[in-house]
Amino acid sequence: WVANSLDFNKDYDASVFETTIRVVGGLLSAYDLSRDNVFLEKARDIADRLLPAWDTTTGIPYNVINLARGNAHNPGWAGGQSILADSGTEQLEFIALSQRTGDPKYQEKVEKVIVALNKTFPADGLLPIYINPDTATGSYSTITFGAMGDREMWETSMKGLLSLIRRSTPSSFAYICEKNGDSLTDKMDELACFAPGMLALGSSDYGPDEAKKFLSLAEELAWTCYSFYQSTPTKLAGENYFFNPGQDMTVGTSWNILRPETVESLFYLWRLTGNKTYQEWGWNIFQAFEKNSRIESGYVGLK
């Protein structure tokens, strides 16, 4: 089917980010597992259709592109800005494509993004969710480790992250609050639950004391994220949670759309620490998905 029927020449406005992580990444994974060149050629085909999105003044890509015509733009609801979490997380697939094809153009395009962001990197290490593709500067917008938000840059960003850590009462759940200007909001998305895994992986590059600090924080945040799941009747997390004094956490947006961040973080923590508790937590979440979201043709989200 991939060889004979998969056709990307469609007059369709596609999300550059979603197409990169799902289609380019999926095809590259299929190639790595099978070594069948049809998957690599299809990955190259769709990547070539996405590449014009990076043809901006700074190299910060537009987030939407027409697959047939190559016209790129940003969504109207973003006010003409590019989304940080899109532009800053497409490097993995495109660098992998360059490595497998031997063609450096894919890697060169996506690495320009990091160079551009580094030129105007803020002192607190916290970039806002919207970035101007013409200037590579952040607009006045929310700073979050949740929806739409991503060695010197890392360390600076970690200082910024630590400034956003708060703990609830009475149970002292650690969470990452959101920042808008000088205001902080006691809210954390399930999407931000990638952070425990990120911190755990990053801790291995520090000396013993710093490594212990970041790993400990990773474990605290993982407990919070797992509690997102355990706090509901279905044992599936809502989309985000608010933290109010004396009430620990309350669900904000209550739907569940099969987010993988918490389970992935638990996997990394299990592998790095050997603590089977994280394996058990991951299994519990999997069983909740099986019970509540499994249908004959796959899995569905819950309202």
From TrEMBL:
This is alpha-1,2-Mannosidase. Keywords: Disulfide bond, Glycosidase, Hydrolase. Pathway: Protein modification; protein glycosylation. Gene3D superfamilies: 1.50.10.10. The keyword Disulfide bond applies. Its EC number is 3.2.1.-. Belongs to the glycosyl hydrolase 47 family.
